[in-house]
Amino acid sequence: MISIREFRVRAIRVPMREPHRTASGTVAESPLILTDILTGNDVTGHSIVFTYTTAALGPTADLIRNIGQTIVGEPLAPLDIADKLARRFRLLGTQGLVGMALAAIDMAAWDALARHLGLPLCELLGGFPKPVQAYGAVGYDGAAGSASVAEQWAAQGFKAVKAKIGYPTIREDLEVIKAIRSAVGNDVAIMVDYNQSLTPTEAIERIRILESEGLAWIEEPVLAHDYEGHARVARQAATPIQCGENWWGPQDFGHAIAARASDYAMLDAMKIGGVTGWMRAAAIAANAGLRVSSHLWPEISAHLLSVTPTAHWLEYCDWWNLVIASPLRIERGTAIAGSAPGSGVEWNEDGIARC
């Protein structure tokens, strides 16, 4: 078994072509941490984590470096590493910045192992690259702006779009949805995302009005960890409720499923615990019969959805393409996981230098 020789960690800020607005705030740039694990036989594994705010860049990078030093010299065995680090942080907890750091290490370790064995990540995990339906992201851009972006996605062959809503009034929410429908037609699915901006009572009131719009799902209408609130909404909504991108690790996922907090599940490769956490959560979802979509991280998510029994949709965004050597390939709205060894994450050093 090869061993871990070194960690390299870089914190960068990737500019966004256009700010991505939501009902809960605006993302104007992508603060990213790029992690490399170097092995004893000169294989390098890569990972990306997204800290949402630049204030968390330095502390998270330091955590990755410090935690990484504790496993230098150990075998490149991602499952064993994940379990060892989970035990080490049991008292502090494995959410927040610690969770981001652990996921960075986990994803880089799996990428290194796949590269060492000469396999795409999905083949290492027992599957093969499968086409996954993808949707394009639409920001909190008002009726005209949202319709314009949705129309651009549809022109590229995407069969679904997801729009941010949660405007001051339900009338404005409806205007956005109707404008998008007019722009993309009836053959493109529309999802909407409230980004946790409502109380359960407000959510029920608004969703009752939205029921006739033929939405594919309504995402995170209330606070992400208000499992009972989401369950209450889901019980009274005919339109499927989608949650999960803010659940930390398989344990959060299990609690949410037990509460019947969502009709579908959305896994975030970073917050769910990297590849290890994803595979464990995907098994829970399969047992519960919940369809699984991804949040961000399109390259690695395409591999993970390829081995997820109840795979549903891949969320596509190009926020980080500047620093990726070979961004995920999309053909007529379908994501195609690469066949090269690893997770699909390879650095574009020229792009990184510009950040």
Brief account:
This protein is of the alpha/beta class.
What does this structure look like?
39% of the residues lie in helices and 23% in strands. With 355 residues, it is α/β, with parallel strands linked by helices. It has 2 domains: 4-118, Enolase-like, domain 1 (2-Layer Sandwich); 124-354, Enolase-like C-terminal domain (TIM Barrel, Alpha-Beta Barrel), CATH 3.20.20.120. The chain is globular. The model has no long low-confidence stretch (mean pLDDT 96).
Top keywords for this entry?
12 helices, 39% helix, Enolase-like, domain 1, TIM Barrel, single chain, 355 residues, 3-stranded antiparallel beta sheet, 2 domains, 10-stranded mixed beta sheet, alpha/beta
Instruction: Output the CATH topology of the largest domain.
Output: TIM Barrel
Biggest sheet architecture:
10 strands, mixed
* Helix-and-strand structural type: alpha/beta
Strand content: 15-25%
Uncertain segments of ≥5 residues (pLDDT<50)? none
List the helices and strands in order: EEEHHHHEHEHEHEHEHEHEHEEEH
Please work out how many helical segments DSSP would assign: 12
Helix content: 25-40%
| CATH 4th-level superfamily of the largest domain | Enolase-like C-terminal domain
- End-to-end separation: 36 Å
Radius of gyration: 20 Å
Number of domains: 2
